[in-house]
Specification:
Number of helices: 7
Order of helices and strands: HEHEHEEHEEHEEHH
Number of strands: 8
Radius of gyration: 17 Å
Largest sheet: 6 strands, mixed
Strand content: 15-25%
Shape: globular
Distance between the termini: 37 Å
Strand order of the largest sheet: 1-2-6-5-3-4
């Protein structure tokens, strides 16, 4: 990660944690935080969907001057009413893209393969340190599953790096992964 990425992610996590937001960082950024060599431009946040948590999330993001992320409009568009509200997040079927002073952010309630979002991901999430903040990030296994389901070109490109990092992590933990596991054979 570049120092700018580190600073922006650190600032984002500072704000989210100061507002007591319950969340998991997912997507390619979570892979990068676990050592995979992935390129991405935004941070995917999967929040707990409780009313109180979504309000805390909005309060946190409002402190970062959020704007709607729109292609070809680098500074984004002004949010209706001037403030992000839980209704904006709940009304999003896939991902809600924002431009903030801490970088580009996608809020994702239901990542591919994880229809219960945070509730599904938190079981296997890994806790890491980001600029002095304890942060939950999606596991490599969950990232691989999600990217396999999405099947977009960029996701297929990331799979090789994620699988290589998964193998390295397995070796570090002394875990042997049976090749049949990837085929669902359970050999």
């Amino acid at each position: 990660m570049s120092s700018t990425d580190d600073e922006q992610l650190g600032r984002l996590c500072d704000v989210l944690n100061a507002h007591h937001v319950v969340y998991v960082i997912f997507g390619s950024f979570a892979g990068r935080l676990q050592g995979a060599d992935l390129h991405t431009v935004d941070v995917d946040i999967v929040p707990d969907r409780s009313e109180y948590n979504l309000q805390r999330l909005c309060d946190a993001l409002n402190s970062l001057s959020p704007r709607w992320r729109i292609d070809d409009v680098s500074e984004g568009l002004r949010i209706d009413g001037g403030r992000l509200e839980p209704r904006h997040i709940l009304g999003s079927s896939i991902a809600l893209g924002l431009v903030t002073s801490a970088g580009l952010i996608d809020i994702v309630l239901e990542p591919a393969g994880f229809e219960r979002g945070y509730d599904d991901l938190s079981w296997h999430a890994v806790t890491v340190d980001v600029a002095g903040n304890r942060v939950k990030i999606g596991s490599i296994d969950d990232l691989i599953r999600s990217k396999e389901i999405l099947g977009r070109e960029k996701d297929r490109e990331h799979l090789a790096d994620l699988r290589a990092r998964q193998a390295e992590l397995d070796l570090e933990r002394g875990k042997h992964r049976d090749p049949g596991d990837d085929l669902g054979l359970g050999l």
